[in-house]
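Problem statement: downstream parser choked on a complex file, so we are re-checking the raw output for the iron/sulfur cluster run. The parser issue turned out to be on our end (a line-ending mismatch), but while we're here, posting the original submission so the record is complete.
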Amino acid sequence: MGAVLTQAVAWRNVETALARLKAAGLLEAEALVAADRAVLEAALRPTRYYASKAERLLGLARLVLSYGHPGRVGLQALFALPTPPLREALLSVPGIGAETADDILLYGAERPVFVIDRYTHRVLWRVGWWADPRYHYRKLQQAVEEAMAGSVEEYQEFHALLVRLGKEVCRPNPLCRQCPLQAGCLAARGQRALQAPGPALQG
Ligand code: SF4
C-alpha cells in the first residue's frame, strides 16, 4: 500500500492515509474490494490523486485475491512466485509502473531488486556515475545491480540513503556544501549539468 500511496507525496501523508485505512478496517484485500468507493477515497485524500490511487489499490487487492482467499493467503501465494513472474504480475495491474512494482518487490517481497526513482537518478547522474544521456529505468537499474550485486538489505539501505540525500541535500537546487559526496561530484565542480539531458525516465 505504501508503495502505491507514496507516489508524488510526502511519507507523512501516506502515514495519515494508512491510519485512516486502518481505522476504516480497509487494510486487507477482501475489505478493500468490498469497500464503499467514497469511503476508500476519503481515506486516501491526503495522498493527492486519491481516485487513481484507490483504483491501483483495488487492482492490487484483486490480484492478491486471484491467488487465494483470504487476502493473507493470496499474498503468500503471490509472493511465493519467482521474481520475474511476480514483477510481471504486479505490472499487469493498471497504473502500477516499474518503480512501484520494484518498490513492492524490494520492500514487500524482499527480493534483491534495486529501485530507480527521481532521487536515485538525480544523484547518480550528478555525481557522474551515470553518464549515458539515453538512460531509462531498466538500463540504470541493471547498471546499479551489476555494479553492486547487493543483498536485499544492501539494496534497501542504499536506496533509502539515496532517497534521503535526494530529498534533503541533492535537491533540484542542491546544497552541495552539506553533501558527503561533494569531493567526488562532477556537478559540484561544474563539470556536469544539474539536469540530465536525456528523455524522461521510462519504466
Ligand atoms: S555534491 Fe551537490 S550535486 Fe553532488 S550529489 Fe551532493 S548535493 Fe548533489
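For whoever reads this later: The chain is about 55% helix and 0% strand.
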